[in-house]
Amino acid sequence: MPLAIYIGRRLVFLVVALFGVSLITFVVTRVLPGNPAYLIVGVQADESTVEAVIERLGLDRPIVEQYGHYMRQLFTGDLGDSWRTKNPVTTDIGVRWPATIELASMAAIMAVAWSVPFGVISALRRRSLSDRLANVVSGIGVSVPEFWLGIILLLVFAFNLGFAPAPIGRTLGVVPPDVTGLYTLDSVIAGDWGALRSALAQLILPALTLAITTGAPLLRVTRGFMRETMSSHHIRSARALGIPERSIVLRHAVPNVLLPVSTMAAMMYGYLLGGTVLVEFVFAWPGIGKYAIDSINASDYAPVLAAVLLSACSYIIVYLIMDILHFIIDPRTRT
Amino acid sequence: MSAADVPEVSIPDAGDPVAPESGAVPVLDVFDLTVGFGSAAKRAVRRSIPLQGIHLQVGAGERMALVGESGSGKSLTAAAVLGLLPDGAEVIRGSIRLDGEELIGAPERRLRDLRGGRMAIMFQNPRASLNPVLTVGGQIAEVIRVHGDAGRRESWTQAVDLLSEMGIPDAARRAKDYVHQYSGGMAQRAALAMALSCRPDLLIADEPTTGLDATLQQQVLELVVEQVTSRDASLLLITHDIAVARSHCERTTVMYAGRVMESGPTASVTGSPKNPYTSALLKAFGTVDQRRMYAIGGVVPTLIGELGECAFADRCPLAAPECREGVPDLRSVGDRRVACVKA
């Protein structure tokens, strides 16, 4: 069966890609300025203490040897320890990644919900109101920096209008019992509507920020593919045989557009899952992006490596899932 | 939009019954069709007139070939008939009647009913004219549902029957296939099935064999003619190949630079052309005994703005001063109409 072979090939690729990513990140973190030993013993420590720590951490060894050691650990599922938080990295990530998943998923849903229908509609008539509006909105969306947009949204909705709470993390109320780690989902499972409202209120502004900035390119891509499809021969033929416009758009054109657009949306989601550093910073969102940046600033190697690997992994896996879906949906891949 | 900025092609004998079915209402009657391109702001100065004073009649059960080189306006004529002119193009004047019903100015809803219902079209490049993500049978069935009151199951059965009539083996199974699983010839059969699904009075075949293997071309053309004939429909066959016109159509209209040059029974148009352009076209196709390949000298005129003379004058071996004095009328000469002052 071709699908099985295909998935097998992609999984091999996944391993190769992760290997490459780990190698590059490992070298880059080791080359960066900053000495982690000082972080552990404090800057006032004397020379011999620092030397001892460096030796204990194995930082005096050749980099190849250090990398070999790291990879051996990795295969046992051990991502090392964070010198900054003093926790195993797996524990830290277990706490923070659900926050990022929740934010990324919400943002992706919102981005697709506004940009894809908008892209389809604006493609139908050139220079129409929706077309012009799409130009303006996507222009703003792709050019505005995320952190700036986040601050503006906070300013307007949280501080001026008071619609949204202050950015103090993932929830104001009680944390729902942990099932998935996603507060919104967990509160639904627990039937705790107060917790759900609180979690959603915290989620809405950062998710909106990301939905605007990631939805804008998606809008452009959707509009581009939709325009192309609407001027294709098969649409002309369908029109020439009296198919009503509604069916032309929804039945004949949109499925052709959804294939490439869903690939793009999957890439976007994969990117969001890897951590949304700036937005997490602005909204004090305790996700993986913020964790990675804090660790970089502290020369804390293991969490940085883990965050990058996780990011690459989620990107590739989301992409793989979308490819498999295409395999099932697109008739051209089945023969 | 006033018609004033386009030179009128006068038809002194417009009512002249040139079509053999004199008295009967033609299935398709295009009269003085003139189409302009270009935005309103530009139109006064540099508006292009890709179709000027087109006359075309297709009688019931008749097969008419529309012949001309690329850019002569054949496909644009078809698009105008279907009411599907490209963006920026508009009918400046003239009339298009289908079974006596005026199509110019008809509401879009009515045109939509007629398209695929009473007039249908098949295009060149059949694989591109079927939707890649819908099943072939599903697309045919949809056309049937849109134009009638057949339900899902019934329209599907009809679609399968049509495919099998068009010579697709194992039609019940192939109807569930997608176009990428069809060969070019099969896709064109499917496109023909789709076009004929609602028993149209007029089938327009726009270069239906372009892009197919030479061996398939003849088969597909024969199938088109056979199916159209068995359904008592009329055929407007658009082709650049005058040999195709000769072997499949009883009447031929020759177009050049957006005008009709000559029109009449195929045998006399191709046998004893009265317009020098028709002669040149025949020579270029090598149908006249000759040793070297013949090419018409010069180039097709640009269609920007008015052209107040014979469009072929620059390339015509017989050009005389009077050819430049105005657009030649499409006159009745014997059994046909010719737009040439020399005829």
Could you walk me through the main structural features you see in this protein, from its secondary elements to its overall organization?
Chain A has 335 residues and is mostly helical. Chain A has a domain at 99-299: MetI-like fold (Orthogonal Bundle), CATH 1.10.3720. Chain A contains 14 helices and no strands. Chain A has helices at 2-31, 36-41, 47-57, 63-75, 89-124, 129-143, 146-160, 183-190, 193-230, 233-240, 245-273, 277-282, 288-297, 301-329. Chain B is α/β, with parallel strands linked by helices. Chain B has one domain: 3-Layer(aba) Sandwich (Rossmann fold), CATH 3.40.50.300. Helices cover 31% and strands 21% of the residues of chain B. Chain B contains 11 helices and 12 strands. Chain B has helices spanning 40-46, 74-82, 108-114, 136-147, 152-165, 171-174, 184-196, 214-230, 242-248, 266-271, 276-284; strands at residues 28-37, 48-58, 63-67, 89-98, 101-102, 119-122, 202-206, 234-239, 251-256, 259-265, 331-333, 336-338. In chain B, the strands form 2 sheets. Chain B has an 8-stranded mixed sheet, with helices on both faces. A 4-stranded antiparallel sheet of chain B has the order 2-1-4-5, with helices on one face. In chain B, β4 and β5 (101-102) form a beta hairpin. In chain B, α4 packs parallel to α7 and α7 (184-196) runs parallel beside α8 (214-230). The longest helix of chain B is centred in the middle third of the chain and has 17 residues, at 214-230. Chain A binds chain B through residues 126, 232-234, 236-244, 247, 251-252, 255-256, 259, 330-332, 335, and chain B through 82, 84, 87, 112-117, 120-121, 123, 125, 128-135, 139, 142-143, 146-147, 178, 180-181, 191, 194-195.
